[in-house]
Amino acid sequence: MTHDMVATLRPLLTAEASAEAYASGVEPSDLEQAVWLRLLERLGTDGPPADPAAWLRGAVRSEARRTRRTARAEQPYAAEPVDDSGPGPEQLALAAARRRALHSAVRRLPGRCPRLMAALLSPKDLTYREIAGELGMSQGSLGPERSRCLGCLRRMLTSEVAAREPRG
I want to staple 64 with a disulfide (CB 3.0 to 4.6 A). Which of 17, 24, 32, 36 is the partner? Predict the structure, then answer.
């Protein structure tokens, strides 16, 4: 009985949904799907309609009205609600932990290295000339000093990372 009703109603539903879809701003296939769902729900509770063709026409118009009401009530977002282009909270937390570990290691460097590395890591993005003036160094000695400090920092961080790894 149900299979015959579906086969009989399919062309009518396709035609009715196509006629109503444009005015409601929905795809005809979406409208058809919503009506099939309503029919299945009705079959589960009240059984088949007495006049399936009349019920189907009414269901299509009802779904089309519901779609128009929904479309009027919906407001577009000013911006995309989900922006996956930036880092998530986990990445931000990990990056902050890495920055804290780096700055902690920089503070433990010997000699002028902590001040030099702090100036190089500054968010002000200082030029070599500005750093040299701030530290009272010649601009020409800044590069070699930076290389020594980075080497020292690299050795320090390598030994710390190696010491933290579990052995087994």
Answer: 24
Q: How distant is the alpha carbon of residue 58 from its chain centre?
A: 41
Contact (Cβ atoms closer than 8 angstroms) between residue 9 and residue 52: yes
> To which H or E segment does residue 22 belong?
helix 2-24
In tens, the pLDDT along 40-54 reads 898 888 888 889 899
Distance CA 127, CA 71 (A): 55
DSSP code of 48? Answer: S
Say if residues 137 and 145 touch (Cβ distance below 8 Å).
yes
Long-range pairs of 24-32 with CB within 8 A, sequence gap ≥ 24: 24/64, 24/65, 24/67, 24/68, 24/71, 25/67, 25/68, 25/71, 26/64, 26/67, 31/60, 31/63, 31/64, 31/67
